[in-house]
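Lab notebook, bench 4. The sequencing result for the construct came back, and we need a structural model before the next group meeting so we can plan mutations. Quick request posted to the team channel:

Model the 3D structure of this chain.
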Amino acid sequence: MMLAICSRMVVPYDHSNSSKKALEMAMTLAAQDEKIEVNVLMVIQPEIPAASLAMTPLLPRLELQHEGAQEIRKEIEQKLESLPNKTRTYVLDGDPAQVIEEFARVNDADFIVIGSRGLSGLKEMFLGSVSNHVLHKATCPVLVVK
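Done. Here's the predicted structure in token form:
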């Protein structure tokens, strides 16, 4: 048995290929020690209303995003069932970078496993803006998975 790398892991997930790889990596690491708690976090960023969105009310779109997130959450929970570890999944609202960093701090996470690029419309040159923020602001070690 290897030494525990951590006791409480946070895995931000947005259904991108990068976050799927991060979840796989986190599960592989957690499988080394069943005392590691795995927290998978999905963050829904409320859209900023623009003039063109006046015809589409914001609330129903947010509800649709939540419905989609709940479907993905079920998939993740089924995937996590293969682990003997304690696992939890969360769907939260807000700015993803800030929510992830704050969640990790408030919940005493001691390790974050995050994908290098998420589903943002903008292609970052080196590292996604969310993973970059978390990497620099987190109070615990961060593993960025390519």
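The chain has one domain: 8-145.
Will bring this to the meeting.
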